[in-house]
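In response to a reviewer's request, we include the raw inputs and outputs for one of the modeled complexes. The four entities were modeled together in a single run.
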Amino acid sequence: MRQAGGGFQSADEHFSLGCTVISVQHSPMTAAPSRKPTIKQVAEAAGVSIKTVSRVLNNERYISATLRARVDEAMHNLAFKPSQAARALAGRRSHQIALICDNPSPYYVYEVQAGVRERCMESHVRMIAQPYDIGAGRVLEDLRDLVDQTNPDGLILTPPITDFTEVLSDLRARRLRFVCLSPAIRAPDCSAAFIDNVAAAREMVNHLTQFGHRRIGFIAGHPSYATSAQRHAGYAQGLAQAGIAYDPDIVIEGQYDFRSGVEGAARLLALGKRPTAIFASSDDIAAGALAMLHQSGVAVPQDMSVTGFDDTALAEVVWPALTTIRQPTRAMAYAAADLLLSEGVGVEHRQIEHRLIIRASAASPLHPIR
Amino acid sequence: MRQAGGGFQSADEHFSLGCTVISVQHSPMTAAPSRKPTIKQVAEAAGVSIKTVSRVLNNERYISATLRARVDEAMHNLAFKPSQAARALAGRRSHQIALICDNPSPYYVYEVQAGVRERCMESHVRMIAQPYDIGAGRVLEDLRDLVDQTNPDGLILTPPITDFTEVLSDLRARRLRFVCLSPAIRAPDCSAAFIDNVAAAREMVNHLTQFGHRRIGFIAGHPSYATSAQRHAGYAQGLAQAGIAYDPDIVIEGQYDFRSGVEGAARLLALGKRPTAIFASSDDIAAGALAMLHQSGVAVPQDMSVTGFDDTALAEVVWPALTTIRQPTRAMAYAAADLLLSEGVGVEHRQIEHRLIIRASAASPLHPIR
DNA sequence: TTGTAGGCGTTATCAC
DNA sequence: GTGATAACGCCTACAA
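The model returned the following C-alpha cells for the whole complex.
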C-alpha cells in the first residue's frame, strides 16, 4: 500500500496547526461462495424450458400470457437477476453503454452523468462512466481498451473527444453506435445533440448592447472545446451587428473553469479602460469572475454587469445577480441518451424543440448604461 | 423519444429573448460483426496451450520465462484484449469494483471518482461509478441489482450510504469486500478510511479563538452525514475549551452545498448581534457564505472571517481569502481504493500518516479581533 | 408458441 | 511447468 496524501504535505505558504491521521482498518474476507439463482432454476420452478425464461427476460414475442405470468412469478420468488457477464458473452448485446467524459467542470460532468444514468435506469441498461483527464494523453488507447473489454452497446461522447477524428473513425470502424454531445462539427454520419452556440452568444451580446453596453469583455473557454470558439464567434457577430469594433484586449482565453473567471476578471479590471460588462462563456467562468469582482470591491451590476451561459444550473442556483443564457446540459444529456437508447432506426435528423432563454432575475436585472 | 428540456421552459421571472433548438441527427448502424482476437488465437500464434496464455494473463507463477515472452509477444502482435464478460463468467473475479456515491457536491463526487479511478487503472481493474440520488429511495434495491448483475470484486461506499446498516449487512451477507469512506461509526469488521473530524473542527475553533474571536457562527452539513455531526461536535468542544457558551442561534443546519452557505450567511447577517466569524463545515458551504457576504457588502476578513473544511481543494483554488482545514478527499479516495485493491490479507488497522493542515494564505490571513 | 443442442471466451480442476 | 477438459449462465439457431 502506498502513502496517501502525496502532494498534500507541501504547504510552504501555510502554517500547520493540527495534525492527525487517516487511519484505515482492514477486515479480511473469509471467502465463501454465494450461489445466486440461475435461469435453470427459474425454469424448473416455473415448469418450463430455459429458453422460455430467456424469452420473457428479453421481452420477446410469441409467448402465451399464462407462461409469461408463471415465469414472472418464479423470477420474482427466487429474486432472480440475470448475470450481465453471461448475457454479454452469449448474446449480441451487453446491456451497457459507456459515457466518455472529460471536462474541467465537475458540475458539468455531474449533470451529464446524472442525466444519462437516469435514462439508462429506465431502459435497464448500465452506464459505465469513464471520467477522463485529457491531459494524461492516450485517450484513443484507453477507449479501445474500454470497448474491447466491456463491449458496450454504444457510447456517448462529450467535448472535446467528440472532435477527435481518430477516435470517431475508430469507433465507426468497430461498427459501434455513438452519440456526440455538443460536437464541433456535425458530421452527417454521426448522431449528435447540440444547440446553436453562435446564435445564442450573439443574442446575449445583442441583449447587452440594447442596454447600452459598448465595451463588453469576453472570457473564452479552453481552445480545445469547439463550443468555446462558437460562443466566441457569436460574441464577435453581436458586436458587429451593433457596429462595435472587436477589441482583442478585452477578449481573454480561459479554460472553462472557475479559476479562469477569477483570473480573466482580474485582467479586465487591470485595464486602463475597463469594460462595463463581462460576458463569460460558461457559468463556472462567470462565477469566478463574480468572485473576483466582489473581492475587488466592484459592485455588480452597478459598476459592471456579468453575463454568461448557465450550462449546469449553477448560476441559476447560486448567482442570482447573473444574467445568463440557460443552456441546460441536463436536457442535452437526456437527448443524447434517448437517441442512443432508442431502437427506432432511421430517425433522421429529428428536432427536439427547446427554448433557449436569456434570463435576468427581477431582483437584479442588467444595469442600463448611462 | 421524449421531449427534452422538461421543466426548463417555465421561467416566470425571466424574459425570453432567444429561441433555438436542440437538434439531433441519427445515423442507423449497418450491423456487421467485428471479430476480436481470442485467447485461442494467441495460443496458436505462440504455439502453446490456451491455459498457458491464461496463465500469463493472470500473472500466475510456474511459467518459464521463454514461454511467457513468447505469449507476451503474441498478445502484443494480435492486440489481444481479454473479454471482461468471459473472465467474469468463468472466473472467480470480475475485475470490476463499484463506487457508490451520493453527495450534493459535484466537486466531492468528482474528486472521489477521479481518485478511485486512478488507482483502478493502475491495477487493471474497472471502476463502475454509480452516482446516487439518495432522495429517489430504494438504494438497497439498486445496490442489490448492481451487485447481482455485475458481480463486482468489491465496493467503495461514501456517506451517507456508509451508515445504512441494512446495506452493510446485506453486503456482508453476500461476502463482498467493501470499504467505507468517512463512515459515521467504525464498525470493527468494516474496512474504512477516515479522519478525526471532531479534533479537526476543534482545532479550527481554537485557531479562531486565539485570534480573539468569541462569537463564531457555524453552518452544518446535512444531518444524514455523520461528518457533519462530528464537525459540529468539534465546534462545540472548541468553544468549551475557550470558555465560550454555545449559542444555538448562530448554529445553522445546512446541507453541504453552496446554497446552504448562501442562506446560512444571510441568516447570520440578519442577526442583531452578528458573529465575527463563520465556520462552515464544508468548502461548498464556505464558498456560498463568502458569496453572500460579498453581495451584502461585508468585507472579508476585515468585517467577518470565514473558515471551513477544504474537502475538495475547491477553496484552495478559488477562495484565497478562506482559512481552511485541508481535508483532502482525493487522498482519502486513494486510501480507500488502495485498501480495497490490496491483496494483502490481514492488514489490520493500518495507519497512513497524513497531516491535516489549517491554512491561511499569507495574502489574507485571519483578521485579529480588536 | 415452445423446446433442444451447441457455443460464446475465459478460468478451474486435475492429470501429465 | 504444462496441457486437456469441463464448467460458467445465457443466447442463437434450428427443430417440433
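As requested, we also summarize the result in words. The CA atoms of residues 67 and 322 of chain B lie 60 Å apart. Confidence is low (pLDDT under 50) at residues 1-22, 344-349, 361-366 of chain B.
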